[in-house]
Amino acid sequence: MPKHGKKYRKAIEGIDLNARYEMPQGVELALKTSVAKFDETVDVALVLGVDPKYSDQMVRGAVSLPHGLGKDVRVAVFCQGEKEAEAKAAGADFVGGEDLVAKVKEGWLDFDKAIATPDMMGKVGQIGRVLGPRGLMPNAKTGTVTFDVANAVKEQKAGKVEFRVDKAGVLHAPLGKVSFGNEKILDNLKTLMETVIRLKPSAAKGTYIKSMTLATTMGPGIKVDPSTLRKHVEA
């Protein structure tokens, strides 16, 4: 068992970490147990009743959170022609075509999100092995392969969250900063959950959301009772 400091031990006093709470209370407790000096990120982990090795049980998508994520998102757009000016006007940090692809090939990766127009995907595919493992590869399913680059840039800048269930059937997603407070984190969580529930694969049988845990960067995991979600989430 890891040893925890006085602040941590005091923060969890009177809290049953094995209990499963309703969503609003879970958010409140997760924020209450934040003990770091910096503004921690609040995350949610969902264990889903799917088997991702089957393509018809993959859960993947993106959602624009109503209150964003509270951080500056550096966006790179792979495009050409008039789309370059459109991307720059929308606030993209880095814009280019083959020159930007070449830059990535040389090892440059100083961006958080990547967007590409469909006509550039042949070139962007050349750096797929670099972008893919880092979760940076543009994808039509998440709205990052599009000719509407202005809207895509604005969504990413505002805090659009992309998510994908991993091999173990677990889905992780950020919900914002502790400084947002209970109401904004709860709003973001509700919006995320509405999207995840809506994306339930028809091939998935049995319980879809098996467990749900909220935690800040340095805080303990607060369990939420999945059976109470319907009271708080509109699917």
Automatic annotation (TrEMBL):
User: Which example biological process does GO assign this protein?
Assistant: translation
- NCBIfam families of this UniProt entry? rplA_bact
**Matches recorded under PROSITE patterns:** RIBOSOMAL_L1
Function comment:
Binds directly to 23S rRNA. The L1 stalk is quite mobile in the ribosome, and is involved in E site tRNA release. Protein L1 is also a translational repressor protein, it controls the translation of the L11 operon by binding to its mRNA.
Q: Which InterPro entries match?
A: Ribosom_uL1_bac-type, Ribosomal_uL1, Ribosomal_uL1-like, Ribosomal_uL1/biogenesis, Ribosomal_uL1_3-a/b-sand, Ribosomal_uL1_CS
From the Swiss-Prot or TrEMBL record, give the protein name: Large ribosomal subunit protein uL1
Q: In terms of domain of life, where is this protein from?
A: Bacteria
Q: Which GO terms describe its molecular function?
A: rRNA binding; structural constituent of ribosome; tRNA binding
Quaternary organization: Part of the 50S ribosomal subunit.
Where does it sit, as one GO cellular component term? Answer: large ribosomal subunit
| Pfam families documented for this protein | Ribosomal_L1
UniProt keywords (A-Z) are:
Repressor, Ribonucleoprotein, Ribosomal protein, RNA-binding, rRNA-binding, Translation regulation, tRNA-binding
Family statement drawn from the similarity comment of this UniProt entry: Belongs to the universal ribosomal protein uL1 family.
